[in-house]
Amino acid sequence: MNIGQLYTALKSEPSSYWESVLLSILRKPWVVVRGKPSVALQEKMAKEEAERVKRQIELLGQEGLEKKRERLERAMKENEIPVPETLLKQFKVKRGGTQFQTRRKRMIM
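The chain above was modelled as a monomer; its predicted structure follows.
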């Protein structure tokens, strides 16, 4: 089923369906985490990070930085190596994807 068919099917659901969906979500335990942006804290963290980087550069020196660069380049090349298909086939993947249940039919994306 494509996204258009899914949208059409969900759009045709009555309001009672959506009410039951919301109630099933809201009746479960949940937590709200509130955060308040702080310009002062962001500036402090940026300053600390700049100081940390400066200390690291001084600690490593030019030779140490070059070694780290080479190590990073090797790691990036290793990460680009394709995973062997024989290894991928060792893992079972559940077929079907995301499932949605409506009153009329079961939809699989």
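The mean pLDDT is 85.
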